[in-house]
Request: fold
Amino acid sequence: MAKDGLFPDINRRDFMKTCVTVSAMLGLPFGMVSKVAASARASDSRPAVIWLHFQECTGCSESLLRSTHPTLSNLILDMISLDYHETLMAGSGHQAEQALHDSMLANKGKYILVVEGAIPTKDNGIYCKVSGKTAMDSLQKAAEGALAIIAMGTCASYGGIQSVGPNPTGAVGVRDLVKDKPIINIPGCPPNPYNFLSTVLYFVTFKKLPELDQLGRPKFAYGRKIHEHCERRAHFDAGRFAKAYGDEGHSQGYCLYKLGCKGPATYANCSVVRFNDANVWPVSVGHPCIGCTEPELLFKTAIADKVQIHEPTPFDSYAPVDLKDKGKGPDPLTTGVIGLAAGAAVGAGVMMARKLPDGPEKGADHDKTE
Ligand code: FSX
Ligand code: SF4
Ligand code: F3S
Reply:
């Protein structure tokens, strides 16, 4: 049991394992693990959370709860005081509304508002109503007393699938409507629960919000492209690509770039943190990344379309592949990219053998397709 019985379903080993993982994700030195664990245990640091649902599929909550990581969902739900969550709470109707009202009053200025789903704005927001109130009204009211807002998922962050043209309901993300509160975007469709947990743990440990990038995402989770850590990266560098689902390259685990993988333009930690205990992520099971953390990629660029690569992406964890054994030359595109990256193309066996410096500003290659 974790100390003081706050997490009755979590044994100490699992609890510490999660704290170590979160600390590593946050880039904290190992010595900080005990501080993170102590903050998670301290009952007085449990922030009140009000969780609203708007236009979405509830996949964000599902990924948190239906994961094969019961300790993770338990930890999250025990670490915060979840006062209102439309799909989890036992109460309904007036009882639920009362709980929302009471929590907003009792925790005014102190609660964290989590929003899941986009907010429709067309025709005064009539396309999404809960308990007779539009999502626009509910959001504004709940945002007023919030300390900070976490936009959970790409829908709440940027509008997601609802906002794709012609966007019939005028769907937008939280940041388009709320301008006077700190907003942390945790995009992904669905997002990785660890990114939510780490954000909350950072907050309870340091009493401040993590550093964010220009799209409002915590840098600790969205600071690098997934392409930098992908296990298929050595095949990309060697010019070995799957060209059709089920072909020889696909079955050999080659790079999925030519099937439309958006990894070279997508900032997220999926290739490192992966999902659930099954240790998988889309690319590991043979599906190209669709850029679900990127507002200009998800559902706005066809799955099969290739992202244009304007600058090299450094990798830092996978060894280069020597092509000589295979008797195949590298793909011209890859040779060009790697040649540019390394500053020297050394013929058909070119490979990236060292880390490369960071390229230009993020976002430069987000929405262009080949
Ligand atoms: Fe959106 Fe979340 Fe995608 Fe679904 O609720 S980010 S559609 S996984 O569930 O909001
Ligand atoms: Fe991995 Fe996609 Fe990059 Fe290929 S293009 S290395 S599959 S992230
Ligand atoms: Fe999303 Fe791509 Fe990760 S589709 S889950 S960002 S691999």
Q: What stands out?
A: The CA atoms of residues 10 and 61 lie 20 Å apart. Strands lie at 48-53, 81-85, 111-116, 119-120, 129-130, 133-134, 146-152, 171-172, 183-186. Residues 224-313 form a domain with the Cytochrome-c3 Hydrogenase; Chain A, domain 2 fold (CATH 4.10.480.10).
